[in-house]
Amino acid sequence: RRRRAAVAQRASRVNPDDFSDVCEQTGITLSRYLIESTKRGVIDSDLASVFNSIREASKVISKLVNTAPLRQAELLGLEGEVNVQGEDQKKLDVITNDVFKAALQYTGKLGTLASEEEDAPVIGTNASDALPVLSDTFAETGKYVCVFDPLDGSSNVDAGIPVGTIFGVFREPDADACELPDDLDQLSSEEAQCLAGALQPGKALVASGYVLYSASTELVLTIGRGVIGFTLDASIGEFVLTRPTIEIPKRGKIYSLNQANINEWDEPMQKYIQAIRSGSGESGKAYSLRYIGSMVGDIHRTLLYGGIFAYPADSKNQDGKLRLLYEGAPMSMIMEQAGGKAVTGHSRVLDIPPTKVHQRVPVILGSPEDVDECQKYYFESNDPVLKARCEARLQGLAKA
């Protein structure tokens, strides 16, 4: 049954080899890929419009990141504000959030936006004097929800270390059919509708992706039919197809996480890491540690080379530190679509229903055999507190 499903999935992918009249000078651009996907009925024109906005915003952010060292007073350092999660906002956090939000809002195709840098979800369609609404239809609430982290790893920009953008797209649900948390007394009906649109489990995602700003700018995307990668060609201002199919190796030999916290982790994770770094794990080989400290960079390497990435729970952060809605869930969809797995320890990340926009979650992502091996340590654990935490997340009872 699994084999038939895998074959069906591969058959339903948009195969760039089937495209006709491809320009020899540019290759297949993201624009062309979206047009072909729309013509084949894989995505609709509204979703294509959302992706086009993400593409344009990413090009602007790439330029900002690359020129930041030359414009330090404008772009580097702290903004002087603290976000809803108690984190100091960098100037680039605020600027890139405004860029991404503005690009998405004016599509008219989004009902709701949720960002790491916003205290709460916001309406996804916006009008302004500079950009007037073209028609009443254009101004209507769209049918998609976009969640995003505009600049993951922003503290690394000053040092020239890779950073990235993470995004996920849901369908806008029927607000009357949504189950919302109980503490909504102070919300207006508009705010409640926004919240209903954003609080969906990762398995409801229709698309997700990330953009890596590094030696090159790469956009990795899934629409639920495998994973594909594009690289920005600055000379023509287009993302060009460079990775027609991204499939993670079944097992790797690299582990990526902040090993300095090992004494604070849950016992299953401690035992797993001790086994693979000593060569006493299932592969019989000692794994190498590679850790950038920027989720996009670490996940990108893991996708291409295999292995495992984790930001596990610890004694200080029992629900992890990465945000479920716009970090954990989109990256988990990408990982699963590439043939990998994504768990919290006991549970699948995509099954967890968020109860708060900025809810945190432990994540263990990577090659399927590596994740399976790690998960065995959790299944063998007799720690009732650990099991209770995992069960609470699945039941929508986790803390924010």
List the helices and strands and how they pair.
Elements: H1 2-12, H2 30-39, H3 45-67, H4 72-75, E1 78-82, E2 88-90, H5 91-105, E3 110-115, E4 122-123, H6 136-139, E5 144-152, E6 163-171, H7 189-198, E7 205-213, E8 217-222, E9 227-233, E10 238-243, E11 254-256, H8 267-278, E12 288-289, H9 295-305, E13 308-311, E14 322-323, H10 324-337, E15 341-343, E16 360-361, E17 363-366, H11 368-380, H12 384-394
Parallel strand pairs: 3-5, 11-12, 11-13
Antiparallel strand pairs: 1-2, 3-4, 5-6, 6-7, 7-8, 8-9, 9-10, 13-17, 14-16, 15-17
Structural features:
single chain, 400 residues, alpha+beta, eight-stranded mixed beta sheet, five-stranded mixed beta sheet, 12 helices, globular, disordered N terminus
Q: What does this entry look like structurally?
A:
The chain has helices spanning 2-12, 30-39, 45-67, 72-75, 91-105, 136-139, 189-198, 267-278, 295-305, 324-337, 368-380, 384-394, and strands spanning 78-82, 88-90, 110-115, 122-123, 144-152, 163-171, 205-213, 217-222, 227-233, 238-243, 254-256, 288-289, 308-311, 322-323, 341-343, 360-361, 363-366. With 400 residues, the protein is of the alpha+beta class. The protein has an eight-stranded mixed beta sheet, sandwiched between helices. Strands 12-11-13-17-15 form a five-stranded mixed beta sheet, sandwiched between helices. Strands 1-2 form a two-stranded antiparallel sheet. β1 (78-82) and β2 (88-90) form a beta hairpin. α2 (30-39) runs antiparallel to α3. Residues 1-11 and 127-140 have low confidence and may be disordered.
Radius of gyration: 21 Å
Helix-residue proportion: 25-40%
**Sheet with the most strands: spatial strand order:** 4-3-5-6-7-8-9-10
Mean pLDDT: 83
* Proportion of beta-strand residues: 15-25%
User: What's the shape?
Assistant: globular
Alpha plus pi helix count: 12
Largest sheet: number of strands, sense, barrel closure: 8 strands, mixed
How many beta-strand elements? 17
Distance between the termini: 38 Å
Low-confidence stretches: 1-11, 127-140
Q: Secondary-structure element order, as H and E?
A: HHHHEEHEEHEEHEEEEEHEHEEHEEEHH
